[in-house]
Each structure stands twice: as C-alpha cells, then as structure tokens.
C-alpha cells in the first residue's frame, strides 16, 4: 500500500497518543511529556513530507539518552513516576521506527496501555472522562487503520465504544478485585496525603489553610452531628523541645473507656492516610474492617505501608473526653518541659498555687488565657527563641497551633498532664450527597488535659475565636485575617450550588466506582447467594452477566440488520424460509426458475401456488408499470402459502 494511504491513519494514531499523554504533564517531570510531544511532532512531520526515518544509531541514542536523564532525575525506572515515564519514552521511540501498517497497529496497541497510566495518579470522574475521550481517539485511529472511510470513522468508533460498554460493566463487577492498589510500587511522593506534618511548630498548620484541596469525606447514617462537634482526630504530639511538638508514641497500651450516656454516631469515611494514621471523629468506639484503634485514641490502618485511599466505617460518641487510667510514671512524661519560656512557666505556677484543686486550676488557666488580649490570625509574626513567651507576652497574635502549644505548656507547668492533638475541625455539608467534605483548610490543633482519670479536650482557639468551631474557618478568618482573600468572601449562590453538585458527583464516583474494592465485591457476591469470591462464583456470574448483555445485543443487531434491508428482499427471504422448512434446499442466490426446478417434489397444489407466487413476484419486480397494490397482494398470498414437507 502506498505511503500516502497511511498519512491520515498515521496522523490519527499520533494525535490519539498526544491526547492520551496530556494528563501526565501534571504528574511527571515536565521535560518527559514535553520530549514525548516533540518526538511525536517530529514523526508527524516525517509522515507529512514522506521523509525517511532516522537511522538505527540515532534512534538508539534518542532513546538511551532520555532514559539516562530520567534515571538521573528520579533515580528509578519503576514505580508510578519512573515506570510511566519510562513507558512514555519507549512509546516515543517506537513511533520513530514505524514503517508499515503493522508497525502503526503495534504503536496503537501501546497507546491503549498508555491511556490507563493517568489512573495510577488520579481516579476521579475527570480522569475517567479523559480516559473515555482517549479511548475514543484511539478507537477512531484503529478504525482508520482498518481502511474505513474517514467520514464515517468517528461514528463507527463511537458505536464500537457504546456496544462494548455493557461488557466492560460486567467485567468491572465480576472480575476479582485486588485487596490493595493495583500499582503497589514505590512512589516518589513522600509527603502526607492529608497535608499534616509529623511535627507541629508555629505556622505548620496555618500553611495548610489557604489550600482548598479536599482531605477526606464522611457520610453519617441517621442523625447528622453539629459542626461544633466535628473534631477529627489524626495525630497526637506529646514531646516538646521548646519550639516544636513531636509524637513520642509512648510504649503503653491502656484500654480506654467511653462515656455511656452519649448517643452513637455511625458513619463512613473515605480518606488517604498519613503513615498509617486516619481521621476519626472523637471519640471512636466501634471500628470496621481494615482499621484499628491504638493508644492515645488514634486510628491506624492495618496495612500501614499502603497510602492509597481507603473507605472505612466507624462509630463515635462525639464526646470531648474519654476515660483512661494512667500510672504516675506516664503522668510525669506528660508533664515534661524543656528549659526556657520562663514567663509562661511563672504565670502557670502562680495560678497553680492559687488553685490547688485541679479542675479549678484548669478553669483558671482558661480564664487567664482569655484575658491576655490574644488575636486569632493566619499571618502572625515570626517568633524566635522562647516562642511561647513571645506569643503570650509579645506578639499576642497566632493561629491554632500557637494557642494549642501555649495552653499545653501552661497546663504542664501548672501540674496538669497535657498533650497536643492535630487533625481537622468542622467541614462543609453537601445536602445533595448528604455527606461532609473536609478540606485542608479545616486543619486544626487543640489540647488535651488529663484530670480525674480522663482525657479532656480543651480547644484554646475557641476561647479567643469561638466562631472557629461553630461557623468554620471561612467565617472566622475574614474578621481575624483580612489578608486572606481566598477564604475572605462568600461565593455567589449559583457557584456554591454548582460546586456542591460537582462534589456530590465526585463523592458518588468515589463511593461506587473507586470504592468498589475486594471487600465490597465479596459483600456483593454474598448478597447474591454465593459463598464469597471463588473461581466457580466468578465463572457463574461472568457467564450469566455476559448472557444478559450479549443476548439482547445480538437480538438488537439482528433486528437492526433486518430493518436496513429493502422490503422486497425481506419478503423474498420469508419465501425462502418457508421452502426450506418444506425440505427444499433454497439458496439466497437462486432465481425463480431455479426455485421451481428444486420444488418438483412438492405436492401439486403447493407447486402450483408457488408457481403463481413466483410469476407475480416477477411482474412486481420487473414490470414497466407495476400495480400500486402489487406488493400488498403478493404478501397476502405469501401468508397463505404453507407448503407441506416433501417425502
């Protein structure tokens, strides 16, 4: 086949590959997709001008040098980033050695593998929509490579995809799911997926507030909690070095007891963990599969090394305290303070001397903090040296981490065991999807003190800015931090409605598609009366699902084919079927005289009726001016033609 005949299919393949790789610009080193696009453009230029391909030596160098650069950039050729970038460079190299139609088909097959790689980084509805667009482009190129007319190729490609969708749906539901992510390979992204750090210092939580990235979603069953009750606990920090708080993970495991008078809230959470830790509404009492409660009322994922998104079920009491016994040795750990911050220590010790009873001492600490004229702001001045003294007696401006750190130091200095809890507070309720969306901007820090055998939550930020826990960060910060335009104004109602609808769609997608994991598949199989996901169960559902899909599809295709045939041809086919049932070997290619010759064995009356039908057929089809009712009369006689079977 001449090279000019491959020009349009070749451009279609290159265009489909370029479209497929566009999302990878967000996840790979920028030079890799850019080089891929340049190499495809070079190949397109060679196709357009019908020039010779580069020599094998130049092609080898053109692949090895970028692979070496990729190794120097990522220090790996596996994992999500390394493996996908390596595949991208290999596909570009393959494009520069395509010569005939077979080579272009191989390149197109590689494009179908490439289309799935963006899903290794993002599985949202936008990523799925882009996958459908990529599959359409690749299928369109495949249709052109098969030699179809360019004018009908888009319609044919769309029809192929639509007809394959029911089969894809059956395979999605039935094929066994892996318990972990498909891409269980190392990743270069080592940061916390929720945005929380493994330590807390002045400004560490405040840096997350301008981000509107979703952190996790929660859906409650039955009664909805109040926004002020939504304290989502993630990490506990119990060691202070004078500036930063860190997690000591004390080597003890004391069973905690929860207040029995609080109603239980049951809910599902979809979140990505940080080092195995997951958000939970205080205080959790029931946990589902895949997670467990550990010391300090923290929620840990069972497979700690897996940082993929997880859906888990919890039951919480929305309580500000829980009961826990603590030995004097462990109490001393929660009272430790480094040297420094003398003014803070002096003020706390003075309050402790005036209020020997611990509960009264705690109330006095809270009243003292309220009386200091502190201001809640996102952009406090930088503090050096004794940071707690600098905050309480100097700048008097801070964000939630300043308040939590200062109050915890005050409590310890006053002889009350205390620690810092970091997580999220509040969230945005979506009425369309009936779920709560918690963003990075909802990050929060508060204190916990141990009194009378129980850990009691104390939110020092709420003492100064009570609207933070009631109305949320968006309402608390504009009055306290006018330098934050991102959250300072309320968007129009139409924009909020549109945003909520999109959030509801994303939530449904994550719940029913991305969240369809091995556990949910096992539950579905059991509801269908099967004992789990086994080979026999998969084969049974696969056969039944394919029958439900393919039988109606085949019936529709046959009906559609019959509707496309002319009326005269349909009538002729009906006559042939009746002759075959009578034992006559009638073929589609037989003429009227051939049919009469084959029908010699019919009964005399049937043979005469067939002869009359065929003569009338010839007059209907070939007369210069056939009667207008000829077709109707012939069909009426055909309905009466019921030949008896020959001997």
From TrEMBL:
Residues 392-462 form the Transglutaminase-like domain. Keywords: Membrane, Transmembrane, Transmembrane helix. SUPFAM superfamilies: Cysteine proteinases. PANTHER family: PROTEIN-GLUTAMINE GAMMA-GLUTAMYLTRANSFERASE (PTHR42736). The keyword Transmembrane applies. This is DUF3488 and DUF4129 domain-containing transglutaminase family protein. It comes from Vogesella facilis. Signal peptide: none annotated. Gene3D superfamilies: 3.10.620.30. The chain crosses the membrane at residues 57-74, 127-147, 156-175, 533-558.
């Amino acid at each position: 086949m001449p090279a000019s005949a491959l020009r349009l299919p070749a451009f279609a393949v290159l265009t489909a590959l370029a479209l497929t790789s566009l999302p990878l610009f967000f996840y790979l080193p920028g030079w890799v997709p850019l080089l891929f696009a340049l190499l495809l453009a070079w190949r397109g230029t060679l196709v357009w001008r019908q020039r010779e391909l580069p020599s094998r030596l130049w092609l080898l160098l053109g692949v090895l040098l970028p692979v070496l650069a990729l190794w120097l950039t990522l220090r790996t050729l596996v994992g999500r980033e390394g493996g996908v970038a390596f595949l991208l460079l290999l596909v570009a190299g393959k494009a520069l050695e395509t010569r005939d139609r077979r080579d272009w088909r191989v390149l197109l097959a590689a494009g179908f593998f490439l289309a799935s790689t963006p899903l290794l980084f993002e599985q949202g509805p936008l990523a799925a929509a882009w996958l459908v667009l990529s599959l359409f482009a690749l299928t369109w190129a495949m249709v052109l490579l098969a030699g179809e007319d360019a004018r009908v190729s888009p319609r044919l490609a769309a029809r192929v995809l639509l007809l394959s969708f029911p089969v894809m749906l059956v395979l999605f539901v039935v094929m066994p799911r892996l318990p972990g992510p498909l891409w269980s390979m190392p990743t270069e992204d080592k940061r916390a997926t929720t945005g929380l750090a493994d330590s807390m210092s002045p400004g560490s939580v405040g840096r997350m507030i301008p981000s509107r990235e979703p952190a996790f979603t929660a859906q409650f069953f039955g009664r909805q909690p109040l926004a002020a009750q939504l304290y989502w606990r993630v990490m506990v920090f119990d060691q202070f070095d004078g500036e930063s708080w860190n997690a000591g993970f004390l080597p003890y495991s004391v069973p905690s007891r929860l207040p029995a008078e609080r109603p239980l809230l049951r809910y599902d959470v979809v979140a990505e963990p940080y080092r195995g830790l997951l958000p939970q509404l205080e205080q959790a009492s029931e946990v589902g599969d895949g997670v467990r409660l550990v010391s300090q009322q923290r929620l840990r994922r069972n497979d700690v090394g897996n940082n993929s998104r997880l859906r888990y079920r919890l039951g919480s009491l929305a309580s500000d305290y829980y009961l826990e016994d603590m030995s004097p040795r462990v109490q001393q750990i929660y009272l430790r303070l480094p040297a420094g911050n003398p003014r803070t220590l002096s003020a706390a010790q003075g309050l402790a001397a005036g209020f020997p009873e611990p509960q009264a001492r705690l109330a006095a600490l809270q009243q003292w903090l309220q009386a200091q004229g502190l201001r809640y702001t996102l952009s406090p001045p930088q503090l050096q040296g004794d940071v707690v003294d600098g905050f309480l007696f100097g700048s008097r401006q801070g964000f939630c981490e300043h308040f939590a750190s200062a109050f915890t130091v005050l409590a310890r200095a006053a002889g009350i065991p205390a620690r810092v809890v970091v997580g999220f507070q509040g969230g945005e309720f979506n009425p369309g999807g009936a779920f709560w969306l918690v963003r990075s901007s909802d990050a929060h820090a508060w204190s916990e003190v141990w009194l009378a055998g129980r850990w009691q939550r104390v939110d020092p930020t709420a003492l100064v800015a009570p609207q933070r826990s009631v109305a949320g960060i968006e309402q608390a910060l504009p009055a306290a931090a006018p330098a934050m335009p991102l959250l300072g104004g309320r968007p129009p109602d139409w924009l909020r409605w549109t945003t909520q609808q999109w959030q509801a769609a994303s939530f449904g997608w994550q719940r029913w598609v991305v969240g369809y994991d091995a556990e949910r598949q096992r539950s579905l199989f059991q509801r269908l009366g099967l004992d789990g996901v086994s080979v026999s169960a998969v084969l049974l559902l696969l056969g039944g699902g394919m029958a439900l899909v393919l039988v109606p599809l085949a019936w529709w295709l046959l009906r559609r084919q019959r509707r496309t045939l002319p009326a005269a041809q349909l009538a002729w086919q009906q006559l042939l079927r009746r002759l075959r049932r009578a034992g006559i070997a009638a073929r589609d290619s037989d003429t009227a005289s051939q049919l009469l010759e084959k029908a010699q064995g019919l009964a005399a009356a049937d043979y005469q009726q067939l002869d009359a039908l065929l003569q009338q057929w010839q007059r209907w089809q070939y007369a210069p001016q056939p009667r207008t009712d000829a077709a109707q009369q012939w069909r009426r006689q055909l309905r009466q033609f019921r030949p008896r079977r020959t001997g």
